[in-house]
Design goal:
alpha+beta, binds zinc ion
Length: 357
C-alpha cells in the first residue's frame, strides 16, 4: 500500500465513506504514478482502460489493475469490483464527475450509495512525497537550463515567437514535456500577465518577460524571468529592484505555519512603498506538482496553512499599461524549518545581450 493510498483511505474513513472512485487525471497520476490519458481508480480494487494495459502494469506496481472493454466498460467493471469488495458507500470526485456520468454510475452501482466528495485528493496532493520532490527538482533544473539557453538569443530583432519556439525545442530535445505553453511578452505587451507570444520583434528598452516550465516524469517546473533589452531606463530599474525585493520577502515569508493570505500580503506591502502594489493584479503564487496550477493559491482570501512538503511558486508582478511589466517567479519547497528555493536562474536585473551594455 502506498502512503498516498493510506492517507486517502484514512481521510475517507473519517468521512464515513468506505471506498472512492478517483477519475480526475491529476489525482489518478498522483495516486498511482500512471501517466496515460485515461484511467480510473477504485480505492480498494483498481481499473484502467484497455488502451493502456501494458503501461498500467508497468507503472502501477502495488495495485491490482484491470482493463475495461467495449463489452465491459469502466462503469460495469467498477460496479463489479465494488460489489465484490462488499462496499455499501462509495465516494466520487464531486467537483470533477459530470452529471451524465453520475447518472450512469448511480444506475450501475445501485443499491450502493454514491457520495460526491469535494477536492479530497487535491488537498492531499499538496504535501509532496520525497519521490515527487525529486521529480520537481529535475523539472526545475531543466527549466533553469532552458533559461540559460534562451537568454543567449534575447536581442533586438528576435520575435517573442522565436523565443517561445526555442523554449519548446529545448525541452523536447531533452526528452521532456512542457508544463504549459510558454509566455513570452515584450515592450508594452509585457503588461499582459498571461500574454500569448506574438511576432513582435524585441526593440531596445523593452522589458521581456519569459514564463515557462519543463515537465519531467509527470512533474512541472515553473519559472519567470524578466530582462531588459540593451538599455534600461531609471523606471525599469526602479520597478525591477522593488519587485525583486518584494519577491525575496515573499519567499522568506513562506514558512510552515504561515497562512497563504499572510504570505500574499508581504510583497504587496513592499510594492506599496512606491505605489506599485496597484499594478500587482494577481495572486502571489500557486501550488506546483503534477499540474502546473496544482492545488492551493496564495491570495488575500485563502486561509490555507503553509506546511512542510508543499511546493509553491512565488511570482509577484507589476504590469503598467502603456509602459510594460515585469514578473519574477521561483519554485519553493517548504521544509520543516523554512524553505528551499528549487529554481536558481539569476534574478539580478539582466540587460541583454551582455555586449550591448
Ligand atoms: Zn509561471
Ligand atoms: Zn506560476
Amino acid at each position: 500500500m502506498t502512503t498516498k493510498l493510506a492517507r486517502l483511505q484514512s481521510q475517507l474513513a473519517e468521512s464515513g465513506i468506505e471506498g472512492m472512485i478517483v477519475s480526475a487525471l491529476p489525482n489518478v497520476q498522483w495516486l498511482t504514478g500512471f501517466t496515460g490519458s485515461a484511467g480510473t481508480v477504485l480505492v480498494t480494487p483498481k481499473v484502467s482502460d484497455g488502451r493502456y494495459t501494458i503501461q498500467a502494469q508497468e507503472q502501477i506496481k502495488d495495485m491490482e489493475t484491470a482493463t475495461a472493454t467495449n463489452e465491459r466498460p469502466t462503469a460495469s467493471l467498477l460496479a463489479e469490483r465494488a460489489q465484490t469488495a462488499g462496499l455499501k458507500t462509495l465516494g466520487f470526485e464531486g467537483d470533477h464527475v459530470t452529471y451524465a456520468t453520475y447518472e450512469t454510475w448511480k444506475e450501475k452501482f445501485a443499491p450502493l450509495e454514491l457520495h460526491g466528495v469535494k477536492d479530497l485528493c487535491g488537498v492531499l496532493r499538496m504535501v509532496k512525497s520525497a519521490e515527487e520532490i525529486s521529480h520537481i527538482r529535475e523539472a526545475c533544473a531543466l527549466t533553469d537550463a532552458c533559461f540559460a539557453h534562451v537568454l543567449r538569443m534575447v536581442q533586438v530583432g528576435v520575435s517573442e515567437l522565436d523565443i517561445s519556439i526555442e523554449i519548446e525545442f529545448f525541452f523536447k530535445r531533452q526528452g521532456a514535456g512542457l508544463a504549459f505553453d510558454p509566455i513570452v511578452v515584450s515592450g508594452e505587451r509585457s503588461a499582459r500577465p498571461h500574454g500569448v507570444p506574438s511576432d513582435k520583434k524585441l526593440t531596445a528598452g523593452d522589458f521581456v518577460t519569459m514564463d515557462f516550465g519543463a515537465k519531467v516524469d509527470g512533474y512541472c517546473g515553473d519559472l519567470t524571468r524578466t530582462v531588459v533589452v540593451q538599455e534600461a531606463s531609471d523606471r525599469h530599474v526602479e520597478i525591477y529592484e522593488l519587485l525583486l525585493r518584494s519577491q525575496l520577502a515573499g519567499i522568506e515569508a513562506l514558512v510552515p505555519g504561515a497562512t497563504a493570505a499572510g504570505v500574499d500580503k508581504v510583497p504587496r506591502d513592499i510594492l506599496a512603498e512606491k505605489d506599485l502594489a496597484q499594478y500587482f493584479t494577481h495572486g502571489l503564487g500557486h501550488g506546483l506538482g503534477g499540474v502546473v496550477h496544482d492545488t492551493g493559491r496564495l491570495h488575500a482570501s485563502s486561509d490555507t496553512v503553509i506546511e512542510a512538503g508543499q511546493v509553491w511558486t512565488i511570482e509577484p508582478g507589476v504590469y503598467i499599461e502603456g509602459f510594460g511589466g515585469a514578473r519574477i517567479e521561483d519554485d519553493v519547497l517548504v521544509t520543516g524549518t523554512g524553505n528551499e528555493v528549487l529554481t536558481h536562474s539569476p534574478k539580478e536585473l539582466l540587460i541583454v545581450p551582455a555586449y550591448g551594455r
